[in-house]
Amino acid sequence: MTLEAKKKSNLNFVNTYSELPKKFYEKKNPTPVKNPKLLKLNNNLCDFLNIDKNYFTKKSGLLLLSGNAIDKSSKPISMAYAGHQFGHFVEQLGDGRAVLLGEKKAKNGKFFDIQLKGSGKTAFSRNGDGRSPLDSVIREYLISEALHHLGIPTTRSLAIVSTGEFVERESMLPGGILTRVASSHIRIGTFEFFHYKKDMKSIKKLADYTINRHFPESVNKKNQYQYLLEQTIILQANLIAEWINVGFIHGVMNTDNTTISGETIDYGPCAFMNNYNPSTVYSYIDVNGRYAYGNQAQIIFWNLTKFSQTLSGIIDENEKRSNKLIISSLEKFPEIFNSAWKRKIRKKFGFTKLLNGDDKIILEFLEILLKQKVDYTSAFRKLSCSLENEIKKQDLFSLFSEKVAIKNWFSGWNNRMKKEKEKVNKIMVFLKKTNPSVIPRNHVVENVINMVINNDDMNSFEELMDLLKNPYEDYDDKQHLITPPKENEDIKNTFCGT
Ligand code: AMP
Ligand code: MG
Question: Is there an atom of ligand 1 within 6 Å of 84 CB?
Answer without folding.
Answer: no
